[in-house]
Specification:
The chain is mainly alpha-helical and 460 residues long. It has 23 helices and six strands. It has three domains: 126 residues, Alpha Horseshoe (MgtE N-terminal fold); 109 residues, CBS-domain (Roll); 180 residues, Tetracycline Repressor, domain 2 (Orthogonal Bundle).
């Protein structure tokens, strides 16, 4: 069968007909990531049966592409020997991640059967706190002594290549494994044969401490277009690398977390789990914020109730309250989103608060003038049939509504910019200033600005 035919196979149909020959061809002739896509939704028993037709190396690579929950369901069915084979062939970082998720009774049974180097590697990689560079790095990297020649280095890399995730970068370390520099495979190939690595290595290294945040590591890889980022400990010894594919996973995870926090959704903020999460789970993640903000929103009702007499006298103002809420929420959310994103990318810090506020004042004024003009035109063109007190002219009402709406837009823009900066100033995640929370705050302040501005201009 051709590669295209293998990729379009119906695995469930092959299982139902017991066609193991085609299953074996599929597992041998198809990319592991494509195999994972085909089998990820199968029951665990069928998934195990399919993977038995693959080599141990392919089986481990397919396993690493499965969702963590699918991995755990599959692991529950594996025998001790199958688990040992899986742990032996998994990349070090994936092996450590799986180890952390397994119950103690499973790990206690597996660990003694692994080679000592693998046991020590698991213990070291699982010792780092979640969210740090150490928690996402791999120990599967190529290091090279500085005294080898270019010709010797090629032979050396050829020897260790089968056991390394990437050899395009080789990291130069001394006897204490302190990072001295790096060389690329291109550097070694193009260098004169007898030139030493210490003479051709790059010493201007971009690295990261093992305890720094994983998002910072991913951003460095993105900023400097790196294939891998070396990770060092306090003594500047090389302990691992973070590869570009792991950096993409980190950025995806962080963006998912920021997006869900921005919309006031609690939970673990994992990517790709919408369909795997039950309706009850989604309810738990959303309900606390929604209920809390609903209670806080009662303040808006009290404000409207307090100005009930004003609305009875000027009913036309009630017609513009939806526009007030929409424009305030929209402009505030825009401002907050831009500031939160700038903070996340380290484009600004809380120390830039004055510059940010000054910029947002300018933006808010421009938006306020635009929306005030729209509201003024709306009143003058379509407000003639509204009931207003005889002692007031329609243009006075139009000016009051336009001014109140303009002030509300400026206020909402400033609140949207200031709240994330204040939260960041106290070393908290600015994404917790979620759009629903911001909208509620802007609604309350907007109503106060709306009614008091109108009363001041109309001298009520």
């Amino acid at each position: 069968m051709t590669a295209e035919e293998l990729e379009t196979l119906d695995i469930a149909e092959l299982l139902s007909t017991g066609d193991e020959t085609t299953l074996r061809q599929f597992c041998v002739g198809t990319q592991p990531v494509i195999i994972a896509d085909h089998v990820s939704n199968l029951p665990s028993e069928d998934l195990r049966f399919v993977l038995r037709h693959a080599s141990p190396e392919t089986r481990a690579e397919v396993f690493s592409h499965l969702h963590p929950e699918t991995q755990l369901d599959l692991v529950d069915l594996l025998s001790r020997d199958e688990m040992i084979s899986l742990f032996t062939h998994l990349p070090p970082d994936d092996r450590a991640d799986l180890y952390k998720r397994l119950p103690d009774e499973r790990t206690d049974a597996i660990l003694p059967a692994l080679a000592q180097a693998e046991r020590e590697d698991i213990r070291r990689l699982t010792s780092y706190e979640e969210g740090t560079a150490g928690s996402v790095m791999t120990s599967d990297y190529a290091s090279i002594p500085p005294n080898l020649t270019a010709e010797q280095s090629i032979e050396y890399l050829r020897t260790i290549a089968p056991d390394r995730e990437t050899i395009y970068y080789a990291y130069v370390v001394d006897d204490q494994r302190r990072l001295m520099g790096f060389v690329s495979l291109k550097d070694i190939i193009l260098a004169p044969r007898h030139r030493k690595i210490s003479e051709i290595m790059h010493q201007d290294m971009i690295s990261i401490s093992v305890e720094e945040d994983q998002e910072k590591a991913a951003r460095k890889i993105q900023k400097y277009d790196l294939l891998a980022l070396p990770v060092i400990d306090q003594s500047e010894a090389l302990v691992g690398i973070i590869t570009h594919d792991d950096a993409i996973d980190v950025i995806t995870q962080e963006q998912t977390e920021d997006m869900e926090k921005l919309m006031a959704i609690a939970g673990r903020h994992e990517a790709g789990v919408y369909m795997r999460t039950s309706a009850w789970g989604h309810f738990r993640n959303r309900s606390v914020w929604v209920a809390g903000l609903a209670v806080l929103g009662l303040a808006s009702g009290f404000i409207v109730q307090n100005f009930e007499g004003f609305l009875l006298q000027f009913a036309i103002f009630a017609a513009f309250m939806p526009m007030l809420a929409d424009t305030g929420g929209n402009t505030g959310s825009q401002s907050a989103s831009l500031v939160i994103r700038a903070l996340a990318l380290n484009e600004i810090t809380p120390r830039d608060a004055f510059r940010v506020i000054l910029k947002e004042v300018h933006v808010g004024v421009y938006l306020g003038i635009l929306l005030a003009a729209l509201a003024f035109g709306r009143v003058m063109l379509m407000g003639a049939g509204s009931t207003i007190p005889e002692e007031y002219m329609l243009i006075q009402i139009a000016v009051a509504i336009a001014a109140a709406l303009g002030f509300q837009v400026v206020s909402a823009t400033l609140i949207g910019a200031m709240l994330p900066l204040v939260v960041a100033r106290f070393n908290k995640d600015p994404a917790v200033i979620a759009s629903p929370a911001l909208t509620t705050i802007v609604d309350i302040t907007g109503l106060l600005i709306y009614f008091y501005t109108a009363q001041f201009i109309l001298k009520v």
